[in-house]
Design a protein that fits this description.
6-stranded parallel β-sheet, 41% helix
Length: 378
Amino acid sequence: MNAVSPLTPSSSTTRPAQRLRVAFFSDSVAERNGAGTYYHDLLPQLNAVTAGVKMFQPSDRPRSRRLSIPMPGDPTQRLLTPNIPKLWREFSAFRPDVVVSITPGPFGLLGNALARRHGCGQLVGFHTQFEELSRLYWNPLSRSIANRYLTVANRVICRSAYATVVNNRQLMATVRRLGADQPMVVGTPLPLDFMHEPVQALRPNLQQVLFAGRLAPEKNLGAVLEAARRCPTVGFAIAGDGPLRRKLQRQAADLDNVTFHGWLNRVALRELLDSSDLLLLPSRLETFGSIALEAMARGRPALVAAGAGIHEWHDLRNGLIALQDNEAIADKIEALSRQSLATRQTRSDRARLAAERLNASTIDTWSELIVRAARAPR
């Protein structure tokens, strides 16, 4: 997957005569998961085509817990109901040209309804295989109800959109079944400071590895703790929160080389990446794997499960190390420890360059899509 999308940006389309206002609707709290992080990183880089961007999403402090529902199997995340009169007023005052619906929850559906009422151009971001996640968390009855809702909601927003954005080619067939006329494979943006802050030099020896993400069943964290037991001289940093946090802390109570850092903001995460020598992402289900791209941007190699969507981006492969289903993390760490610093530095340099190039092409493609969505007939 060398090309980001079939779009070919040109000055006439990526730089409109009048810059556009774009509203994003998401049911994710900012930076709490991959989708939330994606748009937090994207929005500041769209100023070539936008006169303003605005994110409509839940607060991390909901107005009433009675108006929110814990996600089955993961009480750390909640499905929140939007304050419709307030958001309606804010939307009318902002007067967007384009609306991007990111999730099929109440906020995403509200964005779709407001866009249709006000005649806005529409795009959809489809980043998460919710149906696959439901198999890990929900019982058969809950899963059946949830999947029926997700199918209906996704069809509503996908059929209304000029284009549906995915970051994994395997999702193309899924969104086409949901009625998307124009699915687009688009890359993943990076935080600006991950690209602009100086990169820390690699250490001669591999001393610390890092897992960063949700502490949840699909992340396969048991394999990380198993590696920590087999590699007692290597430090294992675990950053993030989720439904397995307490269980993992109990399992690691006797491991002096494991440190839990909890949820970190982006600055703290960047600093922890810089102080680590390798990123671990052994997930059983990973649509893309944004944290691996962030590690590459900081010049750190990433050991990523072979099934993760990031491996489909051929230009990134030189900065990634694939973890096959039958391989142990400890064995890969031991093999990497035997590599020379020069070999590791070469991979580091390639990884950073590839990550920066993907970010640039991602911003170009999003800019083009926004302009075309604004011009598309309703």
